[in-house]
Amino acid sequence: MDSLFTAAEQCLAACEIEDKLCLTQQHAQAWRDGQLSLDSNAEPRSIGEPGHPVKPELVSPGDVPRRGLGSDAGRAAMLHAVTHIEFNAINLAWDAVYRFRDMPRQFYSDWVRVADEEAYHFQLLRQRLNDMGYDYGDFPAHSGLWDMAQRTAFDPMVRMALVPRVLEARGLDVTPGIMKRLKNVGDDESVAALEIILRDEIGHVEIGSRWFKYFCDQRGLNMEQTFLDLIGKYFAGKLRGPFHYDARIKAGFSEAELRALEQLGGNS
Hints:
The structure is a single chain. The protein has helices at residues 4-13, 17-32, 72-99, 105-131, 147-151, 156-184, 188-219, 223-234, 245-250, 255-265; strands spanning 2-3, 36-37, 58-59, 141-142. It is an all-alpha fold. The protein folds into 2 domains: 1-153; 155-192 and 201-268, no CATH class. A two-stranded parallel ribbon has the order 1-2. Strands 3-4 form a two-stranded parallel ribbon. Helix 4 packs antiparallel against helix 7, helix 6 packs antiparallel against helix 7 (188-219) and helix 6 (156-184) packs across helix 8.
């Protein structure tokens, strides 16, 4: 029987978009069908960069052009940025599967599911770009999304705290505002795609919250204090509000955590 870890490595290594999507869907189904084992004869290797297509051009976050939503090109550029996040989220989910060994079986089921759903999100947004006359790769995108995967590769607890509960949770905060702006310019098709993505992303962040709590409980750590300590170490001065309370509560945040986040980032 093939190994889930080998399957995850194949998904991470795939450079062509269709290859990464196809492998993700095939391996996710194989895992659900019980066709992949958790056997591994090798330690996970360090992955400097996952496979990605030649385009989009990757630039620093500050060099990604800002555009308004009043034009087709502006809306396409904004959707392209979200599409790029979803593409990277496929890699982040597979890396959680590949990187962390000897976890409960449910850990792998959860993150395989996330990878599969992120691939679906990417396809939804790419189709929307295509409908507007654009494609993924037509705009530059920022290169910093993989950085946190590398910085948290040493500890699954730290990964669960900082990728789902900080980076992905930010999407819960900003997506409703994007949807409102798109609705105001009559782009109901893009709003419909983002509604699906927001619903699923609440579930993805909740998975991160659940496993972060699991690791904290396992190590006898206070979840709320540990989360704030990790934010202080990795994100000092970088968190921004406002925070989408309802979505974050559904995603496993406590009221105390949200109050602490308000103090750190406020409604700036």
